[in-house]
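Throughout our pipeline, every protein is held as a single compact record rather than as scattered files. The record that follows is passed on verbatim for readers who wish to inspect the format:
___
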Amino acid sequence: MAMLAWNVRGLGIKDTVRALKNAAFKYKADIIFLCETKQKKRYIEKIRMKRKQKNAAFKYNAFYVEPDGIAGGLALWWSNNVKLSILRYEKNFIDTKISISGETDWFGTFIYAPPYTEDKQKFWETLAPLRNDVNAKWCVIGDFNVVASPEEKYGGNPFDHNSAKWYYDFLDQTYLMEIPSSGGSFTWSNQQSNEEAILEKFDRVLSSLDWNFLFPKTISIIDVAFALDHSPIILLVNGVEKKTKKEFKFESRWLIEEECS
């Protein structure tokens, strides 16, 4: 089972829709979470229904949080292989209970953390009490809008210690840990080169110890972002089932090299 989480920065561009379809097909995603859609449910439903017509294997169910004007917006799609119940939602997250093919239930929270510093502390304080049981099987995935350490940043403004502190306070309260990702060091780029380049890691996956015991083969991948500033995060819950031909991987650090312009 695969989950795909992506800050698409709006679904009004054909290249973005094409990149989404390619990623969903490539990883055979059973759950797709899109944040910052900037589009009403009516428009996004047209995209979802087109996928169903072209590939009958992907018959997604859907839940949406409407954007505030042209800002924000969340979309959650899941296949018929997944039993998913919406427990709670706000403009920055969707909290769910999930079961795959009738197996053990677990909790999945799909987030788009606030981009503005003044809203970050309240967001983490709201998210932490979702699970009162430290032994809960819990996975959190999406755009965290926080750089957790100076090593997760290249260029731009100085490292924001306050945002990082509120994030680590959340980890201390929930006992969640980050699942290491392969495929790149950063998940966001300002798409500039040389001294103007800014690279940061915003997107990630957290999980509880009991969730890790439930899915010990889990792999997290940062994929290439074609025509988008954010990279998609892919979570392969059961790991890689079989060996495939090694793929070329694009390292986001190359964007700062003049030779790669």
The helical segments are 14-27, 41-54, 117-127, 161-174, 209-214. The chain has one domain: 2-260.
